[in-house]
Amino acid sequence: MDHHLPHSHQNGLKQAPVMVVMVPFPAQGHLNQLLHFSRLISAYDIPVHYVGSAIHNRQAKHRVHGWDPLTISNIHFHDFPIPQFLTPSPDPHAAVKFPAHLQPAFDASSHLRAPLAALLRTLSPTAHRIIVIHDPLMAYASQDVVSLPNAEAYALHSVSAFAIFFFIWESLEKINNLDIVIPNDLPPLEGCFTDQFTVLIDRQYDFMKFIAGALYNTCREMEGKFIDLLGQEKYNGNKRQWAVGPLNPVVIGAARDSNGRHKCLEWLDKQAPRSALYVSFGTTTSLTDDQIIELAIGLEQSEVPFVWVLRDADRGDIFAGEEEVRRTQLPKGYEDRVGGMGMIVRDWAPQLEILAHPSTGGFLSHCGWNSCMESISMGVPIGAWPMHSDQPRNTMLVTKVLRVGVVVREWAQREELVSSDMIENAVKRLMRSDEGEDMRRRAEELGGAARKSVSEGGTSRMELDSFIAHISRI
Predict the structure, then answer these.
(1) C or N terminus of the chain, fewer CB within 10 Å?
(2) One GO MF term, please (predicted)?
(3) Is the pLDDT score of 10 beyond 50?
C-alpha cells in the first residue's frame, strides 16, 4: 500500500512532498487536456507547474471552458522563451489535411528542453519528488528528467486508447494472438500525417523509454478492453498505467449573466430539447470554399436547427494579427434564409457549454479525441467526419465499437468532395431517425457512465486516487 509523504525539511527549509510539472504539446486539443488534468491534480493540494511558450500558455488559459485557471492558486504558469517561428495561414487545398502550417510552432517547441531542464533543477531541492507529466509528443523536450535523482516522468496520452493500441500493434508487426478481433476495415495511417510530422513523432520514441508509466484521457466504461490490452507487458513494457478520463469538467456551472454568456447559448435556450446540431471541425481543419458551400446547403436542406462554428484552422500564434484570416463566403442570402433555423459563429465558441446544453442533440465533428471525450461525456452522439491524425480511428471507435455515431464521409473517400446530399442524409440519420434516437440513448447512457466514473467511487476517480498515492509514496 502506498503511504503519502509528509512535509520534510532539507537544510532547515520546508520541503514539499511532491510537485508536478506539466509539459503540453502546443496544439489546442493537447494544451486543453493537460490543463484540465492540472486542475484535477491541484485538487489534491499538489502544486502544478504548467510550462510552455508565452503564446501557448496564454492560448490554453484563454480558451479553457468549465473553470478559470486564474482562480486556482497552486497552478503556476511558466512562460519559456522559444525561437520566433513562422505563423503561415492554413492551406485548405492541401492533399493531406494535417495542419502542416503549424509545423514551425511544433518544431520551436523542442527548444523548451533547456528552460524546462533549468526549472527542474530549481524545483528539485524544494520537493521530495518531482513528477513530470508530458505529452508523448514532448518526450524529447522532457528527457532531462532522468538527470535528477528525485524526478520521474509519466506520459499523458491525449488520444484514444483504441488509437494508441492499434498504433503500437502495427509497430510491433501486428501480433496476432489478441483477445479481440482486428477490424478488417481499420483505417490506414496513410493520409493522416505529413512526412515532417512523422519525423517529429519518430524523434520522441527513444525518449519515451524514460517514462515510469502512462495516463490516458479515457475511462473503462468506454475503452476498458483496449486499456487492458495496453496494460499487457508486450505493449507497455510492464509499466504502470492509469485511465483517468474524462479530464474535462463533466458538470458545467450555472449560466453567468447574459453579458458574459455567448450568444449561441442564448439561441440554444430557444430550441427544443435535443433538437439542435452542433457543427465544428476543431482548431486544425480548414475546409475548401467548395466544401463549405456543400456543407451550408446540406445543413439548410436537412431542416435541422444548428450552431455552426465556421472558422479557419488556428495559426501557430492565435494572437497574431488577423489581417490574413480568410472569411469564407456563404451562398448569397444564406444567413438570412437560415436565420431562424441556424446560427453561424465565426469566433471562438464555448464547445463544452454547447455540448452540455439540453437543446444540443448531435455533434457534426472531425472526431479529434478532445471533442469526442467532451461530446460523449455530455451524452451527445456524433456525426463523424475525420480529417487527419487519429481522427479516422476515433471515428471507428465512435461509430462501430461504441455505436454512438454515424459516418458522414468514409476515410477511403477523403480526397472527394462531400456533397450536400450526403451531408443532409447523415444529419437526418443522426438527428431525425429511429437509428439516431437509439444512438442518442446509448450516448446518454455512456455519458452518464463516463460522468459517474469521475465521481466519488467511480473507476476513473479511483485510478486518479491510485496515481496520486503512487507519486506521493514514501
Answers:
(1) N
(2) zeatin O-beta-D-xylosyltransferase activity
(3) no
Distance CA 69, CA 66 (A): 10
- Please tell me the distance from the alpha carbon of residue 226 to that of residue 209, in angstroms, as a whole number: 21
Nearest to 97 by CA among 390, 341, 294: 390
Percent of the chain as helix, strand, coil, to the nearest 5: 45, 15, 40
CA nearest 446: which of 153, 116, 220? 220
- From CA 214, how far away is CA 226, in angstroms rounded? 14
CA 226 to centroid of chain Cα atoms: 18
CA–CA dist 197, 157 (Å, integer): 17
At residue 387, what is the residue type?
M
Structure confidence by residue, pLDDT tens digits, 39-68:
999 999 999 999 999 999 999 999 999 999
Q: How many helices (H) and strands (E) does the chain have?
A: 17, 14
Confidence of residue 289 (pLDDT cuts 50, 70, 90): very high
Which one, of 440, 463, 401, lies nearest residue 247 by Cα?
A: 463
* Helix residue ranges per DSSP H, 303-408: 334-337, 351-356, 369-377, 391-396
pLDDT digits (tens, 9 = 90+) for 455-469: 999 999 999 999 999
Domains detected in the chain: 8-249+455-471 (3.40.50.2000), 258-451 (3.40.50.2000)
Query: 235 with 229: CB under 8 angstroms?
Result: yes
Whose CA is closest to 55, among 26, 88, 34? 26
What is the CA 438 to chain-centroid distance, rounded?
26
The CA distances from residue 106 to 57, 60, 144, in Å, are 14, 15, 19
Residues taking part in catalysis: 30, 135
Between β-strands 240-243 and 306-309, what pairing exists: parallel, antiparallel or unpaired? unpaired
What's the rounded mean pLDDT across residues 297-325? Answer: 90
* Strand pairing category for 13-23 and 8-10: antiparallel
* Residue 412 neighbours by CB under 8 Å, 6+ apart: 187
| The amino acid at 205 | Y
Beta carbons of 78 and 48 less than 8 angstroms apart: no
DSSP reduced 3-state for 122: helix
Does position 1 have pLDDT exceeding 90, yes or no? no
If we measure between CA atoms, which residue out of 144, 129, 423 comes closest to residue 300? 423
- Between CA 337 and CA 38 the distance in angstroms is 44
Contact 32, 370 (CB under 8 A): yes
Cell of 396: 471507428
pLDDT score, position 340: 86
* E strand or H helix at 307: strand 306-309
Looking up cell 532547515 gives: 12
Closest CA to 143 of 123, 125, 120, 124: 120
